[in-house]
Amino acid sequence: MNNSRQDLTLYNAHFIDGLVKAGVESAVISPGSRSTPMALLLTEHPDIKEYIQIDERSAAFFALGLAKVSGKPTALLCTSGTAAANYLPAITEANNARIPLIVLTSDRPHELREVGAPQTIDQNRLYGTHVKWFAEMALPDAEESILRYVRTTAAKAVYTAKQSPAGPVHLNFPFREPLLPEYDGLFERLETDRFPAIHLNEGMRVLPQCEIEELAALLQGKEKGLIVCGEQQSEGFEEVVVELAEKLGYPILADPLSGLRSGAVYSDLIIDSYDAFLRNDRVKQEAVFDVVLRFGAMPVSKALTQFLCRHAGKVHCVVDGGGGWRDPIGVATHMLAADESAFCRLLTSCLKEREDTSLWMRNWIRINQGAKAKMESIGEDQELDEGTLFYEILQRLPDPSALFVGNSMPIRDLDSFFFANHRRVRLLANRGANGIDGLVSSALGAAAVTSPLYLIIGDLSFFHDLNGLLAAKLNGIKMTVIVINNNGGGIFSYLPQAAEPKHFERLFGTPADLDFSYAAQLYGAGYEKVSDLSSLDTAMAKAERADGLFIIEAVTDRVKNVIAHRELWEKVSQEMNKLTAGDDFWK
Amino acid sequence: MNNSRQDLTLYNAHFIDGLVKAGVESAVISPGSRSTPMALLLTEHPDIKEYIQIDERSAAFFALGLAKVSGKPTALLCTSGTAAANYLPAITEANNARIPLIVLTSDRPHELREVGAPQTIDQNRLYGTHVKWFAEMALPDAEESILRYVRTTAAKAVYTAKQSPAGPVHLNFPFREPLLPEYDGLFERLETDRFPAIHLNEGMRVLPQCEIEELAALLQGKEKGLIVCGEQQSEGFEEVVVELAEKLGYPILADPLSGLRSGAVYSDLIIDSYDAFLRNDRVKQEAVFDVVLRFGAMPVSKALTQFLCRHAGKVHCVVDGGGGWRDPIGVATHMLAADESAFCRLLTSCLKEREDTSLWMRNWIRINQGAKAKMESIGEDQELDEGTLFYEILQRLPDPSALFVGNSMPIRDLDSFFFANHRRVRLLANRGANGIDGLVSSALGAAAVTSPLYLIIGDLSFFHDLNGLLAAKLNGIKMTVIVINNNGGGIFSYLPQAAEPKHFERLFGTPADLDFSYAAQLYGAGYEKVSDLSSLDTAMAKAERADGLFIIEAVTDRVKNVIAHRELWEKVSQEMNKLTAGDDFWK
């Protein structure tokens, strides 16, 4: 009944070589026994870079961060049992955020399932609807037809994971003992010539020319339009959407994850302070648009969402190359499944050149600049509340660099304080399911393929994935973590329950009283605590020189922070009232 | 469309009161927004003790440990999205280990699902085949019929979770904003009189009398029988199985989790060194039995499993009150779905009294005592290898106390070195899926309801659930953790790959180089490092006096440890050869 060592070896080697031929370059491996053949052969393959993380939950988020930045499917490998269950949080995020992952779980063979054998759970469709494809693999065998099958399956897994919308796929491998393959120098000897690699092209969705022309005619008649851009993955999108905006005379409301707030595309039609000025009632009410063209995921800003909702009934086109239904507010009038860049290019080519800048466009630029000027006044503060801190850190990011931000407050502060600029700062976050989990690991996975990388994260979220830090040491990765430690869940202070003190701190504030200098020592990271701008400068300089992990801890106050944010929004709002006073501002 | 505050309040309050009336006493809550109504009302209910843990993965294992020791279903509550996904590892363990959990996830309402809304994943049947029951709940409503429905559903959830085999159930609650219920003093005002509590009795499986009598006749004719006991949950089992063994004249091979190795049932027919002496070829071959009566889960010992396999074809009865198919080695001849205690009582009453102790029984006692004497000689060692350390710690456990052990090596060392005794030491482990994850939290959940509690755990496993430590501080729980730090995965040194150094340390040894004194400081725990018996004494005494968490770190060596274990087994094997020499030992 046992498979021979040759069956085990060739089956796994050809599968892994199939992954490589289909474009997989990295694998994140967690230690285990059942996964032995795959782990040894992934490590042995000259074209796979392997990363190790002991905690499978962190390993999966690491793979997600790596795939997010590289754009290439990353393989994940673990042993049987709860190990595989630990992948679920990252898999749900990958599925929602459209990140290609190749999840490989090893399993007991069929005769040891559901009979009380150790370390055995039902791994069949373990991730339910949260993967794009599941396959239960055949037992190891070195027959020609089986080797062809594993190579084909590897290619199909990559092809499926990459097709828009990209996402995770799951293959479950039953392995019998003995589990030790031949591996030393195996890939030099492996005969792969008789298996030609399969050329893969995932294609893209486009609209027929007539539909584009109709849309062009519709838009050309509408002066008051908005382009809204959320996180998207279409190549070259930033340039072509700016070109489209110029031709239409529409401002672009650009989410921080849209790729439009930094880099070569910098233009004043990129509106970056809308989250502040759309809190003003007059602007919300009077800036009435006729049409919205929306690309990518729904932006982070709640003020923007509420503004779009308020004027429901206008033409609202949702363009998504992944064909998803991205309309949580139920305002879409057009659902267009089309690659975002291709769509912009085609539409632009159907539009007439504009002679001048419209009043509409000039007004959006004016209120944006007015709001931004007030927001930037935060830089004059001496005390480091979270807003000031965020603003100051963003000023100090090197060019080029990457910034990963946590969910809950950091992504919202990024939205408020990262103003459009020429610098090449790549902004990253986990906005598929917006969890506070797995962020250290996601950032480290990203840092494995882009450097320098900074992570700004709250204390609860940092705590949630402290284990993730181990990957820096085990794989020699450099990263700077800036922990904004307000000792608890800052976002709850903005919710209605904050007004009622009973149970608030126990259930929502949840102060953990953690001194992260000990976490730094545990994981061999550099560490600085900052309390003012000069210590921030020193810490950022030290972090830049550090070889590996560096942790900067900034202690802030949840209550003061809410007050400071509200004061700032109030200042912006007053400025908006001044700027848009009179009846003819929007006329 | 929004539900009124009254709908939200009454719906949740009656559900929670329904849980309490059905026997739920504890809830483990992780902070979140969508779960606000349930969190506030669980905390407010006077008969629910709530525990807080920020990391949902740890929270779920905490609930599992608590339910394991209390025997009562524990509620678990989290917000929407990846938070809920983090429960999966503990849920798979609970499902395999038969632990009743009431998993409550909060969710976006239907109109916000699969339309790109934030923090939203498909939570419908999120845990797949790993829960006993899933229900998507109705929206909050205060109609009489709906209040009756939520109370009934609460009772049904508890009833289902507790029915043998016990396990987790999952209820998913869609909540619309606003999420803040009335709660202050609510349960004093809540009118529950018109909803009488439902009396629940989960019943038990029993065999018809004729089947018991046939079995009694079969067994009475067979002198050479064995009783094998693994982990089981049938009340009062320990006493009745010893009585049965005495009447049959069969030795009991008792797994450490069977409940038979300590306490009032102590008897020399409880065989506790079989993992050592069944490695001896002569014993394995010559101790031929005619019949096996097996209760509970498959024991930990691989030597025992192989011995049972070797003599496949003999009468082998698997008795399981949960009706599971617990036979990973495929040797069962009788599958009997019957409550273990009831089965023993009925069978005993059908058997005749024995006059004397048979040679068969005397032989098992002789070899057990011979092996044990050799095993105990480990206590004479000066150096603390893992075996010695384990043996010495076990000698020092207070009476009464509870001991939770980690998977991989600790459970195997417990099997080797915890000899049957009179002390009341409750032995606990997570042997459903045997993961190395979630053990700190499982032990802390157990420590919340039984004290003093000790956890012995390896360094990789301790690392995996470091976050679990936070619950000690947040909930004021006392526990002593003894970390056996051999800097990596000790169990891999016993596997074939240990013979091949290439990739071994990177993929399997995985040294993390963690100094856990920093983890102790991070979580405000007491800490001692031990290197010999006298420092172990000091550390154990300090731990006993400590108020909260105390961590004892013992640094050992993976390579030396394998050698020491093999030497010890060799010593036992030689002793067995001597003891059983000649042809007439078993005759």
From TrEMBL, chains A, B:
What is known about its subunit structure? Homodimer.
Ranges for domain Menaquinone biosynthesis protein MenD middle come to 222-405
Q: What general EC class does the enzyme of this chain belong to?
A: transferase
* Associated pathway: Quinol/quinone metabolism; menaquinone biosynthesis; Quinol/quinone metabolism; 1,4-dihydroxy-2-naphthoate biosynthesis; 1,4-dihydroxy-2-naphthoate from chorismate: step 2/7
List the cofactors: thiamine diphosphate; Mg(2+); Mn(2+)
**What catalytic activity is recorded?**
isochorismate + 2-oxoglutarate + H(+) = 5-enolpyruvoyl-6-hydroxy-2-succinyl-cyclohex-3-ene-1-carboxylate + CO2
Q: Indicate the family of this protein.
A: Belongs to the TPP enzyme family. MenD subfamily.
- Offer one Pfam family short name for this entry: TPP_enzyme_N
Occurrences of domain Thiamine pyrophosphate enzyme TPP-binding (ranges):
440-553
The record's SUPFAM superfamilies line, in alphabetical order, gives:
DHS-like NAD/FAD-binding domain (SSF52467), Thiamin diphosphate-binding fold (THDP-binding) (SSF52518)
Protein name according to UniProt: 2-succinyl-5-enolpyruvyl-6-hydroxy-3-cyclohexene-1-carboxylate synthase
* Role according to the record: Catalyzes the thiamine diphosphate-dependent decarboxylation of 2-oxoglutarate and the subsequent addition of the resulting succinic semialdehyde-thiamine pyrophosphate anion to isochorismate to yield 2-succinyl-5-enolpyruvyl-6-hydroxy-3-cyclohexene-1-carboxylate (SEPHCHC).
Q: Name one GO molecular function term.
A: 2-succinyl-5-enolpyruvyl-6-hydroxy-3-cyclohexene-1-carboxylic-acid synthase activity
Q: Which residues form the Thiamine pyrophosphate enzyme N-terminal TPP-binding domain?
A: 14-124
Q: How is the cofactor bound?
A: Binds 1 thiamine pyrophosphate per subunit.
Taxonomic classification, please? Bacteria, Bacillati, Bacillota, Bacilli, Bacillales
Q: Tell me which UniProt keywords the record has, alphabetically.
A: Magnesium, Manganese, Menaquinone biosynthesis, Metal-binding, Thiamine pyrophosphate, Transferase
Name of encoding gene: menD
Under Enzyme Commission nomenclature, its number is 2.2.1.9
